[in-house]
Structure formats: structure tokens, C-alpha cells
């Protein structure tokens, strides 16, 4: 390259000795041949076996029982829980308690059913709308002068 020729990308080359050729195992005894990194004798020296092979033991997928029967667990309804004492804190002036109002005040998340439980006491009259109520929650809300409506 001449003195005043600018350096270009296509002029760049790796330093001498930086690029070594790939080792080609099993291509003759002069160059990593013979056993080619597989050791001597045995199943793995000759060929590979299936991924689940356990050396002649009964494989795991045959030792474990098959799933039997049917479960409704994946169809169960999981409610978000709101207790009466929390409702008393969120709505101290009383009034209507809807799902949207609970979401706006951060008591529950969107798109999940809500159940009101009777833990704690309530002193103000609330008109509560929810997907489910416990029996004690219904009694306490009615006793405080409020009403209950299930969605």
C-alpha cells in the first residue's frame, strides 16, 4: 500500500496467526483421528442413544403413572377479596360501591370477579355491587343500613 493511499475496509486483514483452521476430528490418525474425543469403547464411543435412555433402567416416562381422571381445577372461579373494613376505609361517607369505583381506588384489578367478605365492621350505609358476598358480609352491610346486589 502506498504512503498516501487512504485505509479502506477491504484492506483490513486479521493479524498473522490469529485465524486458525477448525479442528476436523475423526479424519485420520495424524490429525485428532482414531477415537475423535469419544474415549475408548462403550455405547457412546460407537454411536449415540435416544435422549431418554437410562442404560437399561426402565425409563422415567414409563416409571411414572399416567394421569387418570378429570379435574375441574382449571375451570374454578378465583375471586379478588375485599373485606368490609377496607370498604369502610375507602368509602367513609357511604354511598354506592361498584366494581369500577373499587378499581379506581386501587382495591381490585380489572377483569376479575370480586367477592366481599365480612372481616371487620362497617358503620356507614353502603350500596355494594359485587360478584359474590359471604353470608356475614351481607348481614353486616344490611345491619349498617346498606344494600347488597350481586352481578
Taken in chain order, the helices and strands follow as HHEHEHEEEHE
| Count of runs of 4 or more consecutive helical residues | 5
**How many extended strands?**
6
Largest sheet, if any? Answer: 3 strands, parallel
Mean pLDDT: 90
Summarize the structure in words.
The chain has 151 residues and is α/β, with parallel strands linked by helices. It contains 5 helices and 6 strands. Strands 1-3-5 form a 3-stranded parallel beta sheet. A 3-stranded parallel beta sheet has the order 2-4-6. It holds the Pfam family Ribosomal_L27A. InterPro entries: Ribosomal_uL15, Ribosomal_uL15/eL18, Ribosomal_uL15/eL18_sf, Ribosomal_uL15_bac-type, Ribosomal_uL15_CS. Part of the 50S ribosomal subunit. Belongs to the universal ribosomal protein uL15 family.
Q: Notable features of this structure?
A:
single chain; 151 residues; alpha/beta; three-stranded parallel beta sheet; 5 helices; 20% helix
Set down the secondary structure blueprint:
Blueprint: H1 43-46, H2 60-63, E1 80-83, H3 84-90, E2 95-97, H4 99-104, E3 114-117, E4 126-130, E5 132-133, H5 135-143, E6 147-150
Parallel strand pairs: 1-3, 2-4, 3-5, 4-6
Describe the structure in brief:
This protein is of the alpha/beta class. The chain has helices spanning 43-46, 60-63, 84-90, 99-104, 135-143; strands at 80-83, 95-97, 114-117, 126-130, 132-133, 147-150.
Amino acid at each position: 500500500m502506498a504512503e498516501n493511499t487512504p485505509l479502506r475496509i477491504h484492506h483490513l486483514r486479521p493479524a498473522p496467526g490469529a485465524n486458525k483452521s477448525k479442528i476436523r476430528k475423526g479424519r485420520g490418525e495424524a490429525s485428532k483421528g482414531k477415537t475423535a474425543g469419544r474415549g475408548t469403547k462403550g455405547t457412546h464411543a460407537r454411536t449415540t442413544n435416544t435422549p431418554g435412555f437410562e442404560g437399561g433402567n426402565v425409563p422415567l416416562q414409563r416409571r411414572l403413572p399416567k394421569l387418570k381422571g378429570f379435574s375441574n381445577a382449571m375451570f374454578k372461579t378465583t375471586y379478588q377479596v375485599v373485606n368490609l373494613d377496607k370498604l369502610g376505609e375507602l368509602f367513609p361517607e357511604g354511598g354506592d360501591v361498584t366494581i369500577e369505583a373499587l378499581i379506581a381506588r386501587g382495591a381490585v384489578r380489572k377483569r376479575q370477579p370480586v367477592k366481599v367478605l365480612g372481616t371487620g365492621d362497617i358503620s356507614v350505609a353502603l350500596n355494594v355491587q359485587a360478584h359474590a358476598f359471604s353470608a356475614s358480609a351481607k348481614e353486616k352491610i344490611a345491619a349498617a343500613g346498606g344494600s347488597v346486589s350481586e352481578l
